[in-house]
Amino acid sequence: MSQLNSQQAAPAMQELKVGVIGGGFMARTHADAIRRAGAQLIGVRSNGEQSTRQASAALGVPGFGSVEALLAQCDAVHVTSPNALHAEQAASALAAGLSVVCEKPLATSAREAGELALQASRSRAVASVPFVYRYHPMVRQARAHVQEGKLGRLLTVRGQYLQDWMHTVSDSNWRVEPAKGGPSRAFSDIGSHLVDLLEFIAGERIVRLNATTSIAHKQRGAVDVDTEDAAALIVQMASGAIGTLMVSQVNAGRKNALTIELSGDRSALEFKQEKPEELWIGKPDMSSILSRQAADLSPDAARLSVVPAGHPMGYLDAFAAFVADTYAAIRGEAPDGLPTFADGARACRLTDAVLESADSGDWIDTDD
Question: Among 137, 165, 224, 266, which has the highest number of CB atoms less than 10 A from its own CB?
Answer without folding.
Answer: 137
